[in-house]
Amino acid sequence: MSSPKKIVLLGATGSIGENTLRVVAKHPDKLELLAIAGRRRWRDLARIAREFNVPHVAIYDEAVCAEARASGEFPAGTKLYCGLEGLIAVSVLGEAQLVVPAIVGTLSLKPTLAALEKGKDIALASKEILVLAGKFVMETASRSGSRMLPLDSEHNAIFQCLQGERKVDVDRLILTASGGPFRDFSREQMATVTKEMALKHPNWDMGPKITIDSSTMANKGLELIEARWLFDLPADRIDVTIHPQSIVHSMVQYVDGSILAQLCPPVMTFAIQHTLLYPERAAGVDATLDFSQLLNLEFRPPDEVQFPCLRLAREAALAGGIATGAFNAANEIAVEAFVADRIGYLDIPRVIERTLESISNHDPDNLDDLLAADAEARRIAGEKVAAGLTPITK
Ligand code: NAD
Ligand code: MG
């Protein structure tokens, strides 16, 4: 029997992190945690390190990392690493075979690039890094021969539907979207949305940022851009359909008109396990669909007037250059401001739109150029927030 695959999990204390731990716990003969990383919750990291016998732990926050080191609560022999450098160090450990970036936002960009340079495979949850730097990430992967395994459920579905097919035969990708809690809201009702309302998703149990992004459909916009890079297709060949049940996770339409789909319940362990064990399959963690029960599947086109974030993401994807990174940066700033009660719900797309209008788009020459553009987009979005976008809708 071969030895278990050695995994590095960045973002072990989050929603994807927890589900990844459930998959690892189910398959101790096939999967082993070599390293975990988080931002601040060191007690949780210490518990995971004890439970899974993890030899390497990275903590982003330096002060918290020092506190964790002094605590004596990590198992003897566990090595602690601090800061972004620490996250990079665990991502390039000689023994590491697969790195799972599952940190919210773009912080895992550098650790992921470092892992790719060393030929590690990636099971990607952190879609934002492709939205910011898809060209550089995918080029680095193809240079080193690393595999980019899509962990996001829609992209994982597409990846499964592409197995054994020829890329030239692909006509379109069809991303499914739940439409979030406000899919049946009128424009007037949208203006009354509070953060408490936006933080409740009807189908999925996820971290707070992605839950709000799902309600505005900015998440589907990010996923459209993510798909553009993962599958190397232009954004005008990637469609979105609203599928309220979140059972069909996405589809691939071939040139002959046949459409392949992947189905399972809206639980992340299915996609996570597929990437961790790929190309093997084994019994799953959660129960699958039961066709002895009534199952209705609906599909309808999204309304881009109701969900301007989707339109803005598509426009950014078609524009290319630094526009997709600016879309992501402005969305992050706007969501933060909304959660802090500084702007209203309908201001989220306004901040994004006005930021995209203010940047000067260009093709970035290198990563530093791209990161400078990201910082500039964040600055502009912050200004739009501070200027009090009017009308502020509370
Ligand atoms: P979450 O908020 O539940 O967890 C975020 C994790 O990131 C935590 O472990 C936190 O410690 C870690 N983190 C944040 N900042 C960090 C830093 N500076 N350094 C180190 N670690 C840091 O988020 P989530 O819902 O698990 O989402 C994580 C990523 O996965 C996001 O990119 C999201 O878009 C993507 N994703 C999530 C889901 C889902 O079902 N939750 C589905 C698809 C994709
Ligand atoms: Mg998704």
UniProtKB/TrEMBL annotation:
Its EC number is 1.1.1.267. NADPH binds at T13, G14, S15, I16, R40, E128, G207. It catalyses: 2-C-methyl-D-erythritol 4-phosphate + NADP(+) = 1-deoxy-D-xylulose 5-phosphate + NADPH + H(+). 1-deoxy-D-xylulose 5-phosphate binds at K127, S153, E154, S178, H201, S214, N219, K220, E223. Pfam families: DXP_redisom_C, DXP_reductoisom, DXPR_C. Transmembrane segments: none annotated. One of its GO terms (biological process) is isopentenyl diphosphate biosynthetic process, methylerythritol 4-phosphate pathway involved in terpenoid biosynthetic process. Residues 148-231 form the 1-deoxy-D-xylulose 5-phosphate reductoisomerase C-terminal domain. Residues 263-379 form the DXP reductoisomerase C-terminal domain. Mn(2+) binds at D152, E154, E223. Pathway: Isoprenoid biosynthesis; isopentenyl diphosphate biosynthesis via DXP pathway; isopentenyl diphosphate from 1-deoxy-D-xylulose 5-phosphate: step 1/6. The keyword Metal-binding applies. Residues 7-134 form the 1-deoxy-D-xylulose 5-phosphate reductoisomerase N-terminal domain. Its cofactor is Mg(2+); Mn(2+). Keywords: Isomerase, Isoprene biosynthesis, Magnesium, Manganese, Metal-binding, NADP, Oxidoreductase. GO terms for molecular function: 1-deoxy-D-xylulose-5-phosphate reductoisomerase activity; isomerase activity; manganese ion binding; NADPH binding. Belongs to the DXR family. HAMAP family: DXP_reductoisom. Catalyzes the NADPH-dependent rearrangement and reduction of 1-deoxy-D-xylulose-5-phosphate (DXP) to 2-C-methyl-D-erythritol 4-phosphate (MEP). PANTHER family: 1-DEOXY-D-XYLULOSE 5-PHOSPHATE REDUCTOISOMERASE (PTHR30525), 1-DEOXY-D-XYLULOSE 5-PHOSPHATE REDUCTOISOMERASE, CHLOROPLASTIC (PTHR30525:SF0). This is 1-deoxy-D-xylulose 5-phosphate reductoisomerase. It comes from Ruficoccus amylovorans.
